[in-house]
Design a protein that fits this description.
The chain is an all-alpha fold and 81 residues long. Helix content is 60%, strand content 0%. The protein contains two helices and no strands.
């Protein structure tokens, strides 16, 4: 079976959502976690941010997107990870 790039992107996005949700739901237990683990998590989050910025730049440079952040007052569900 050949996986197309679009399918890989969708599948990867779903996996990232699942894992971020798990970490978010553990936030109540952060006080019970060793300091080294929390420092490692902060370092990892910094790496994620850098990677996300690079991906955004790459997408915007390749695609001619008419994408703008929605700033209207429509009712939408807010998901926080």
């Amino acid at each position: 079976m050949i996986k197309l790039a679009t399918t890989k992107i969708y599948n990867s996005t779903e996996k990232i959502d699942i894992h971020l949700d798990r970490i978010y739901n553990l936030s109540n237990d952060f006080g019970n976690v060793e300091t080294d683990a929390m420092i490692n998590l902060l370092d990892t989050i910094g790496s994620w941010k850098d990677c996300i910025e690079e991906i955004e730049i790459e997408i915007k440079s390749i695609q001619d997107l008419d994408y703008e952040t929605k700033l209207d007052n429509t009712e939408e569900e807010l998901l926080i990870y």
